[in-house]
Amino acid sequence: MKLFQLPQQLWLQQPYAGKSGHSQLPPPTHLPYSIPSLRLKIRTFTLLALSDPGASGLNSSIKSNLGKLLADALRYYYFDSDSVVEEALGGKDAVRSFVKTDLKGFRDSETEVLKQLSSMGRLVIGAGNGAVQRAANLALMRHGISIWIDVPLDMVAKEIVEESFQPPASETIKGAYPEVLTQLTAIYEESRKGYATADTTIALQKVASRLGYDTLDAVTTEDMVLETLKEIERLMRVKKLMEEAARPF
């Protein structure tokens, strides 16, 4: 297994760094919704699903933008696990070479990054595709709340082809729209069981229908964040009820 430490600047950014107490958090985003009960030490893993559902890992602007805004609203920090792995291993070219020569070693590195991130508090983590490839990774995500952001696969493919969105260096996805769609479908089918272990799912199509939008493109990042916050609040209420029910009379 390839062992390494996360880059020092990443550790310095986490809220509990230093002996003097919490580091300064960014000002919260002003959304028309607030959840005081969520000012807790929880980690939220956001998973982008890739299909008519959609899957953890293939990065898209939807996942990264939602993760950043969600973290801002909660006054948490946001990390994209693929980006952390790339930085820890020395950049995109190093990752591509590592994947070709030692895929198992690369997956071990993904697990090590998730292990280190899961030990930190007040984080929203955009989990890469490798996050659902191993039982050990899924267990690490149980340290927080895992959320599957369900986006139609064809929207992700369109973003890659038409908007030149770059997937993580570990994912070799290229070609015209049909080829890209085929590659994304294969990745989804390989990992769909892992995606299904998420605590909850926020589906783009359901959000659009609930809000009365005619097209999926009309759904904004803010719309998705609000739905995610409501679902987190529901999960926290359920957890509290279960804990109270388990207490002896």
Automatic annotation (TrEMBL):
Q: Name one GO cellular component term.
A: chloroplast
One annotated GO molecular function: kinase activity
What InterPro entries does UniProt report for this protein, alphabetically? P-loop_NTPase (IPR027417), Shikimate/glucono_kinase (IPR031322)
Q: What are the subcellular locations of this protein?
A: Plastid, Chloroplast
Task: Give the highest taxon in the source lineage.
Answer: Eukaryota
Keywords for this protein? Kinase, Transferase
Q: Which Pfam families match?
A: SKI
The keyword Kinase belongs to this UniProt entry's keyword annotation: yes
Indicate the family of this protein: Belongs to the shikimate kinase family.
The name this protein goes by in its record: Inactive shikimate kinase like 1, chloroplastic isoform X2
Species name for this entry?
Nicotiana tabacum (Common tobacco)
- Which gene holds the coding sequence for this protein? LOC107795619
